[in-house]
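Narrative of activities, Objective 1.

The group set out to show that a structural description can be obtained from nothing but a protein's sequence at a throughput compatible with the screening campaign. Below is one input-output pair from the validation batch, recorded exactly as produced.
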Amino acid sequence: MTRTGKFLAGVFVALIAVAALFPSLLAPGSPLAVHPAEAFESPSLRHPFGTDESGRDIYTRVVHGTADSLTIGLAATGLGMGIAVVLGIITAFAPRWIDSVILRGLEVLYAIPTLLMALIIIAFTGPGTTPAIIAVGLSTAPGYARLIRTHLRTLVNSEMFDAATVLGHSTWRKVRNHLVPNTLTTLLALVTLGIGQAVIWASALSFLGLGTPPPAPEWGAMLASGRTYLHFAWWMTVFPGLAIVTVAAGATLLGRSVTRRST
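Output recorded for this entry:
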């Protein structure tokens, strides 16, 4: 990544962090404050992103919605990655037949589209923010697990690991000294890439009415409420959609940068 790219990436991360942790610094108003007399105002100096059907400022809602959307993305990615790491460690040290059984199961689950699996899980758990986190996390776990399993199996079968075995190192010591240091960068890259994907899937569930319910300023829910008025109030969907695309694309670029640095 060039210096300009690194600078832009740093600015992007800083803005997202401020919007998520201190949204009032960028948008002092309340994302839930309604002003019926100002409903459907187009973008202007007073309302840079316009207003919605209740007169709520969309810029304020997009900024404050960063925390909601990123929380879901981070939590879902953490859940999926945690399951994947556990399965990866099991397959790395388990007998070959156990590894084969787990791998076949992961391949079957991986063949199911992520959104379809999330919808199936939501059918059992019911809609809401927490069910959306669980659904997205469980749906993305098989993909992560396959990647981590391959990475760990490569390390376990390496000469470095064989040398540690010959020297009499315990399994815990081999995991601590060899597996963990050589896996952290891979995990960081997967997490960074996964956050963007998780934000998209969580927004999709909210768009379908199965994630965070309105009037919370979650980007997917804002898209859903704005589609009814798309023919004359385009800003209600365009700006939340741009926020989703920007975060997903930014996270993907950062993840690829981390991946390139690790290779």
